[in-house]
Amino acid sequence: MPRAAAALSLSGRFGHLGRQAAAGLTAWAHDRDVPLRIEDDGSDPDRSACLCTMLAPGADLLFGPYGSGAGRAVAAAMDGRAEVVWNHGAAAVPRGGARLVDVLGPADAYWRGLPAVVGADEAVVVVRAPGGFGAQIAAGAIAALRAAGRPPLATVDLDPAAPDAAVAVAVAAGATWIAGGGRMEDDLALGRAAAGAGLSAALVVNGVAEAGRSFGDAVTGWLGPVQWDGTPGPVPLPPGSDYPAAQALAAALVAEEALARAGSVDPDALWDAARALRTHTLIGPFAVDADGRQTAHAPALVRWVGGPEGPVREIAWRPPPAGPCDTGPRDGDGRR
């Protein structure tokens, strides 16, 4: 029986989302009767990195943290080590020498469907949130709009202390929408400012239920990316689970399948099996390249619509099915 472990944000700024991820891993562990150890990183990237390196020797399946900041810290700490880290919650992690396997779609794919769901007569300003995650989110939105022949009116950097300033730029440019996303607290502040100015918002936070609780009726019509469209998996999730729980469950299921194909808990065998694996989970297709980067999955988009008890999320766009082309390793066998 494999041993599993994870360092997750059970407290701190990412506590709500980290506890969702813990629920997904716990549901899998209980269903499969796998011993699972979860340590609280307190939403501190340095602590997450420390905990992962501490947990790695005693875990056959090691799951990464929630949040791209923590994911980057873990990648740096695991650089050169043999253990595989199953990445379910960090969408913007530059690759070094760590053996990270992405199960979720990358941050620059979050707004791939934006041009398809924002009306042709609508004008968009992209807001770039601080940090690597926010930068990749913005870059993806810009690329998607340009590819559709609808480049944004402007791109503005978000000052988390002054979200009204970014909204003022959008209003002055003649925008009807702002698009982007970063940390939850920054998205919530930006969304409130947008609502106050009469703008619609496409923000990462709009993918989770907290947007409905925080924005109320103002969220109606707004857009958000979701790694999970609600498709049930082979292991039931707890009631009220959101996409961070589904991402974690998907990572556990992929890790379990790779372990079975490897036929061993040896990290080298597991790394090779993970990169060769082509499968499908409750969040969508899975395939990675030679460095463990996800190449098959991109988030869907939800739109908030009116409901009898307040706004609810409905799927507005799904990525098209993967084509027949090979999405596997492209840069050699990646062995150390």
Question: Would you spell out the secondary-structure blueprint of this structure?
Answer:
Elements (H helix, E strand, L loop, with lengths): L3 E5 L6 H18 L3 E5 L4 H11 L5 E3 L4 H10 L6 E4 L11 E4 L11 H4 L6 E5 L2 H17 L6 E4 L5 H11 L3 E4 L3 H13 L3 E4 L6 H6 L7 E4 L16 H20 L4 H10 L2 E3 L2 E3 L13 E6 L6 E6 L19
Parallel strand pairs: 1-2, 1-3, 3-4, 4-5, 6-7, 6-8, 8-9
Antiparallel strand pairs: 10-13, 11-12, 13-14
Helix pairs in contact: 1-9, 2-3, 6-7, 9-10
At CATH level 2, the architecture of the largest domain is: 3-Layer(aba) Sandwich
Which structural class do you get from the secondary structure elements? alpha/beta
| Arithmetic mean of pLDDT | 93
CATH class of the largest domain: Alpha Beta
Profile the largest sheet: 5 strands, parallel
- Strand ordering within the main sheet: 2-1-3-4-5
Q: Give the tally of β-strands.
A: 14
Q: Which spans have pLDDT < 50 for at least 5 consecutive residues?
A: 324-336
> What is the CATH topology descriptor of the largest domain?
Rossmann fold
